[in-house]
UniProtKB/TrEMBL annotation:
Signal peptide positions (record): 1-24
Protein name (record): BON domain-containing protein
Record organism: Paraburkholderia ultramafica
Superkingdom of origin: Bacteria
Stored PANTHER family: BON DOMAIN-CONTAINING PROTEIN
Residue span, BON domain: 54-122
Alphabetized Gene3D superfamilies for the sequence: 3.30.1340.30
Region of interest (Disordered), residue spans: 27-54
Compositionally biased tracts (Low complexity): 27-46
Keywords: Signal
Pfam families: BON
Amino acid sequence: MRKIAGLGLFVGAIVVAMSTNAWSQSGNASGAGAAASVTGAAAPSSSPVPARKANRALRRSVYAAISKHREISAGSIGVTARNGAVTLNGTVTDASQIATVGEIAKGVPGVTSVTNRLTVQRPFGGQ
C-alpha cells in the first residue's frame, strides 16, 4: 500500500514539475528569460516551512479567538489558513452564529480575508 501511495506522490510531483516547466516556456520565448522564470517559480517552493508555520500560527489564533466566545461551539468548526486567507468550514447550532464567527475571524491580526462556509447543524430526526 505504501508503494502505491509513494508511486502516486512521485507521479504527481513529475506532473507538477512538467506543468511548471511548460507554463514558463510558453510565457517567455527567450532562453534566458525562460530560465529566470523557472528559477523564480522554484524559489518559493524550496522553503515552505516558514509559510507553513505562519499558516499554522494564524489558524491557532483564529481558533483561540473563537473559543473565547462561550456561546459558540468551536468543536465543529474547521479553520484553514493560507497566506492570511482564512476559510471556515463546519457547523454551528444557530444561524446567527455564522456571521458572528466570520466577524471574529476577520478581527484576528494577520487575517486578510475570510471565506465563511459554515452551515447550521440540524438536529437528528428533525425536519
